[in-house]
Amino acid sequence: MDRIEEPAARGAAKDAGKGAAKGRSLSVVPPAEAAPATSPAASPPPHHRNPGTELKPDWFETIQVNLSAVERRAATLGTRRSVKKEYQAAWLVKALQCIDLTTLAGDDTPGRVRRLCAKARRPLREDIVEALGLADAPPTVGAVCVYPTMVGPAVKALEGSGIPVASVATGFPAGLTPLPQRLAEIRYAVEEGAGEIDIVINRAQVLTQDWTRLYDEVRAMREACGPAHLKAILGTGDLKTLRNVYKASMVAMMAGSDFIKTSTGKEDVNATLPVSLTMVRALRDYGERTGETIGFKPAGGLKTAKDALSWLILMKEELGRRWLEPDLFRIGASSMLADIERQLEHYATGRYAAAAHHALA
């Protein structure tokens, strides 16, 4: 693929809720495509590790990105269709299941992490779960994301839940510490029990087009992860152009990243739909060339249930139903969960609670 353009609308995604069962029976997509959310859905196949490839600059060096077309395409995602009532509730439950519930603050404590993990286990109040008909299979979030020193308390608090612990590493958020220290940080987090590692790339290597060094570093980080999955944070707000975003995405996947992630949440500009669309197109191109399925994680600035719906629609339209599962799609957020819970309470009761009624994660 030599150019990213605005595609024609995909007929299969014209109506996110068309054909779903009425009433309180929730279905994220039409029954022909997925099991209703009110019954225990079949677990998706495990997301196998991405083996990566050799560095192949010819896959991305000539890429051209039509900025205006990308922006037009991104603008249609939240405006061309409407997802309402039971369909909206079902999509919001799906979004909740894909959240990486996160705390990355300088004043994090084991107590705060334990509270976060309790919310991860039961992200919705029991009365809302009952009203939605999900009592037999209460939803949980996709993962809990913390600093390396908080992995131990998180693993202990989540024991038996099946919820993985993700740890940021490699000099988060700047990624500018010496490579041996970054690799040691990965190994420490894995030894503490982290099942996923969110690394940050050195953005200077993208800005100077030093693809060999970027590839070698991410490859070394991949090896340091051992059995843990690697999510590569590109820091897209620092990369300046969508061409750089596409190229960095491709190099990270070639080096063995299991996920590509937009942002640390600390940049001036974090996840946006145009940037996410560009990364998703790179992910799709990589999959067409290699047959590998790579995950995607937007993070930073996503706060509302409306944001969650926009990114779910992006994944459904660009990649298909398979990328609506937490082994291939995550949302890096914390405050978003409170708004999703508020919207689901409105669906169940017909009344909006004050925002303060739902505790932040």
TrEMBL record:
Pfam families listed in its UniProt record: DeoC
Region (Disordered): 1-56
Catalytic activity reported: 2-deoxy-D-ribose 5-phosphate = D-glyceraldehyde 3-phosphate + acetaldehyde
GO cellular component, one term: cytoplasm
InterPro entries hit by this protein: Aldolase_TIM (IPR013785), DeoC (IPR011343), DeoC/FbaB/LacD_aldolase (IPR002915)
GO molecular function, one term: deoxyribose-phosphate aldolase activity
Residue ranges with Basic and acidic residues bias: 1-17
NCBIfam families: deoC
Family that this chain belongs to: Belongs to the DeoC/FbaB aldolase family. DeoC type 2 subfamily.
Protein name listed in UniProt: Deoxyribose-phosphate aldolase
Originating organism: Aureimonas endophytica
Gene: deoC
